[in-house]
Amino acid sequence: MSAILVIDDEPGIRTTVKDILEDEGHRAFSAEDGPAGLEILKRERIDVVLLDVWLPRMGGIDVLKAIKANYPAIEVIVVSGHASIDMAVSAVKLGAFDFIEKPLSIERLVTAVRNARALSSLRLENAKLRRNTVEDPELFGTSPAMDQVRELIHQSADSDARVLITGENGTGKEMAARSIHAQSARASGPFVAVNCAAMPDTLIESELFGHEKGSFTDASSRRKGKFETAHTGTLFLDEIADMSLQAQSKVLRAIQGMRFERLGGEETLEVDVRIIAATNKDLKHEISRGTFREDLFFRLNVIPIRMPALRDRPEDIPVLAARFLATYAAKDSSPRLLSTGAAEILAAHPWPGNVRELKNFIERVSVMCDDNPVPESAVRHFLAGLDGKPETRAVDSLSELVDLRLTGAKDAFERKYLVHNLRKHDYNIARTAEGIGVYPSNLHAKIKKYGIEVGE
């Protein structure tokens, strides 16, 4: 349950909004002006403030400054019946989470509060993470599915039992494995990751178990294998289902007794290694096809963990997106936010590449879009590129252009060129058209084609 404070000088609005919030399951408080609201903040633990910008005694912008100076963890949603772009920009620069206009839409209000609360929870999680040594941004989320994953990770960390992590590509399987290792008694030991799909049969034995000098043509010296390297730590066998049956049999033999010989060697080596395996395939189906050993499956599947697809936990998408955006913005020491509309668009997208795809997408947005908060239009624009539509995105450097196909590069340059000249002429169509030597009708067509908006 979240605690929401409504600061508005209109009694009717205070009562209505308070009732709506309580119907949504929140604890709601109200104040008629800024000083009264600040007094409530002194005695109550508030998560989100809904702040009218036009207030008696103390203006809303001054109240916003006071809240962010004294309670930086509280998210503030600024409300106004006389909104302007300049005011919205000023509020966001001062730390407001969102800016909504009167008359209030119930759906818009509820969504803005929900997203603000999600970011507040995210910041609490960040604070907890900073107190710990484990950094697992890809495991963030407040959905029941991710709560269960984190609980299984925590339980797994307390034992040495083998773990089998399944899930689609990009769901965070390796991050889960690293988190188990980092929370376990083996944390001071090595974490060794092996991509089984990338190892040909001819090298698998040497890679996993090592080799002696002269054991094959290119073996010019003795080499330790991954099992030996992971001694006292964790060996992560990623994409285990992509191993050949021959390689699977060798892995099975090794994990049964944690004993093996280097290729070309006679000495039996013993290691103390915890095994965590992962795959994006249905191993029971692979067993029925005869491509995966059933006995190896039973050896690995002591503690099964299923990583949910991002589309199955859409409520986590705004939280993850905000986390990734904050991470990339931190490199510039400039806080960045997502608008409510942008968060809603992201949550509705299927994300076939899961968390990895979302993370890469947010990195692109953070580089290519200067607006803060990131607007809905920008997210729609970049998502169009993901869906295979013409990539008419903004670019900031030549290095961005050269990574595009020719058509995309031409479109990207033309879009940036038009935005630059529109800004130069204060978005006056006639002057801009004259300045770049085209008819206004042609400029209108280009603006529509590239989805350029005033103020971009």
Structure report:
The protein has 456 residues and is α/β, with parallel strands linked by helices. The chain has three domains: 3-128, Rossmann fold, CATH 3.40.50.2300; 144-306, P-loop containing nucleotide triphosphate hydrolases (Rossmann fold), CATH 3.40.50; 311-450, Helicase, Ruva Protein, domain 3 (Orthogonal Bundle). Helices cover 49% and strands 12% of the residues. Strand 4 (75-80), helix 4 and strand 5 (98-101) form a beta-alpha-beta unit. Helix 13 (317-330) packs across helix 15. The longest helix is centred in the first third of the chain and has 26 residues, at 106-131. It is globular, with a radius of gyration of 28 Å. Residues 127-135 and 388-402 have low confidence and may be disordered.
Number of domains: 3
CATH architecture of the largest domain: 3-Layer(aba) Sandwich
% residues in beta strands: 5-15%
Structural class: alpha/beta
Give the termini separation.
38 Å
The rounded Rg comes to: 28 Å
Number of helices: 20
Q: What gross morphology would you assign? A: globular
What is the makeup of the main sheet?
Answer: 5 strands, parallel
Helical residue percent band: 40-55%
Please give the number of β-strands: 12
Any idea what the CATH superfamily of the largest domain is called?
P-loop containing nucleotide triphosphate hydrolases
> Would you tell me the overall average pLDDT?
84
